[in-house]
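Changelog-adjacent note: as of this version, every example in the card shows the full chain rather than a window. The one below runs 78 residues end to end.
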Amino acid sequence: MDTFSITPSMSRKANALDNACMESFFSYLKTEIHQELRNVKTIEEAKQLIHDYIRYYNHRRIQGVLDYQTPVQYARAS
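Full-length structure tokens:
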């Protein structure tokens, strides 16, 4: 970790508050593309599927917690 001057997040066990955003994202990812991930044959296919989902999540997926906007729309309005 010192090589890149990165300080890892080290909360107590079972305390996901510092990772709440990522935990939420991964939950959506696993739920929404579960079937597609099961059919993946190569690492490259998996990478592309996840890349496509991240793009969808940020640019097209409307979220109630963000005043029914996409994350990109919400960030631009802030």
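Structural remarks: The chain has a mean pLDDT of 85.
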